[in-house]
Write a structure and sequence with these properties.
By secondary structure, this protein is an all-alpha fold. The chain is flat.
Length: 190
Amino acid sequence: MTRGPTLPAHRLPPLPAPLDAFNAAPDHEAGALLLRCLHSPRWCRRIADHRPYPDVESLLAAADEAAYDLSPGDLAEALAGERLPRVPDGTYGAARTALSAAHATYEAKFGHAFVIYLGDTPPEETVDRVLEGIQSRWTNDPEEERAVVAEELRRLARGRLAERLRGAGQCSSAAPPRGATSPRGGAPGV
């Protein structure tokens, strides 16, 4: 059977990469995306105001730098938007109770939610890792804990931002599968 001439391939215009979309987004949209990474308007403004970024690594470096510059008030504002990490489905009631009690004790001592960057921690190890983290940090004095919290918030913000920009290139080492596991309960996409 002979075939007739074929039509030229139909090419769809390429979709913008997440970084391109972020760079071109109106200020309010970029700010909304950034607030989901870290609830600090100052941090968000610093990052959004320096757009466009040439690559994801430059954006993540700017996010780190902006996080290092947060004042105690900025950190308090960011912490107000945080929650304890979501407990995976199927977790025993006793583990949920232990986690709630440990978090309440931590919150009573330090006055804010416990934050921890879980990296690529498998879901079945989340509760153990959070409990371990809370217990190891109970002995910190408030100043020492403030420094730990600032670093955990920086890592969370970077992980959440990398997760939202995954697929934008040059991001694979900065965006582990669960790097953005958030105390808000996960990391939605862009």
